[in-house]
Amino acid sequence: MNLLGKRWASLLEIFLVSTRLGLTSFGGPIAHLGYFHEEYVRRRKWMDEQSYADLVALCQFLPGPASSQVGIGIGLMRAGVLGGIVSFIGFTMPSVIVLILFATVLHQFGMTEAGWIDGLKIVAVVVVAHAILGMAKNLTPDIKRKTIALFAVVAVLMWQTAFTQIGVIIIAGLIGYTLYRQHELDDKSTSASFPVSRRFGIICLTLFFGLLFLLPFLREAIAWNWVAMFDSFYRSGALVFGGGHVVLPLLEREFVPTGWLTEEEFLAGYGAAQAVPGPLFTFAAYIGTIINGWKGGLLATLAIFTPAFLLILGALPFWDQLRRNHHVKGALMGVNAAVVGILIAAFYSPIWTSSIINSTDFAFAAVLFVMLVYFKLPPWVIVLTGALGGTLLSMIA
């Protein structure tokens, strides 16, 4: 087989393996990383343990969907930039297709008032509560970071704008830099080698920041619905630290107050997103479809994942220097603490206030929470139980 044939065979293998993972990877980003490790490191030996650990560390350091970025990085290390794209498509498209179909049915048949939709909204309460507990334990272990999280909660609830969240993240980064710049680094890993040049990395980072700052101006100048959509999803994908659940408040602030979709539609889609495998960021496909049909769903998916692509490609050549920098690590510790606060604020409004209406809703949420956290049942079971329970409760109400 010639070189071109080997390259296409490698790309096909990446696509098939990543698609299988995209169809079977339930459980959120931490579970995804476990699936990746089993498939790519232990079974196929596409990379060694240390290289995988370095790649995971980088993706957790960057904003955006960590598991998707790890998948992109593995594909890139296996077959270059095209391999990263193919890996992303395979892992992401199954859930994108399902959520586009769900949004189409929900929107066309006007089912947002159905009992099972109320059940899915309660599922959203349970899932976010679980995420908060896990993140708070890891990201706010001391009183300083707990205080930063409290500051974020108060600020976001008192001044409910997208700019508040961005400001909170920036201020928390500065506080973290001040408090933790002398923090001891626990990093015994060796230097990693990634197949991306520094020049290419600089181009990607320049494009990342260029789009982040230019899209809002372009949005105002052109006043075209598609540009506004791309800007909102791109900004949400670029400013999310801490994983898929944190994108919820950013997307809610972007699309619900502006009337692009109702709060009921938003929370129903968020609950449904828990039932599908793959990255939670594909929730954007649901929102885009509600707003502008399947074309809107595809545009939303492209927009929210573009920052992840640009950041992973841009940061790979510089990762060894960044991870050993005290100042960068300190700033990130502050940002991660603020993320916990932002998620708590989103948990109260809109999730809790629009989902837990009475004592019956609270009791049902408690049952689902115990099933998820203590019985450790898979998310799709929780979603199915939520939908069925919501239907039954609406019938006996």
Short description:
With 397 residues, the protein is mostly helical.
Q: Shape, please?
A: globular
Total domain count: 1
Separate helix tally: 16
Structural class: mainly alpha
Give the strand content.
under 5%
Largest sheet: none
Low-confidence stretches: none
Helix content: over 70%
Head-to-tail CA distance between termini: 67 Å
Count of distinct strands: 0
C-alpha Rg, in Å?
21 Å
SSE topology string: HHHHHHHHHHHHHHHH
Mean pLDDT: 83
Walk me through this protein's architecture.
InterPro entries: Chr_Tranpt_l_chain, Chromate_transpt. It is a multi-pass membrane protein. It comes from Halalkalibacter suaedae. GO terms for molecular function: chromate transmembrane transporter activity. It is found in: Cell membrane. With 397 residues, the chain is an all-alpha fold. It has one domain (3-16, 24-396). Helix content is 79%, strand content 0%. The chain is built from 16 helices and no strands. The protein has helices at 3-24, 29-43, 49-61, 66-109, 115-139, 143-158, 162-180, 198-222, 225-238, 247-255, 263-273, 283-315, 319-323, 326-355, 359-373, 379-396. The radius of gyration is 21 Å and the shape is globular.
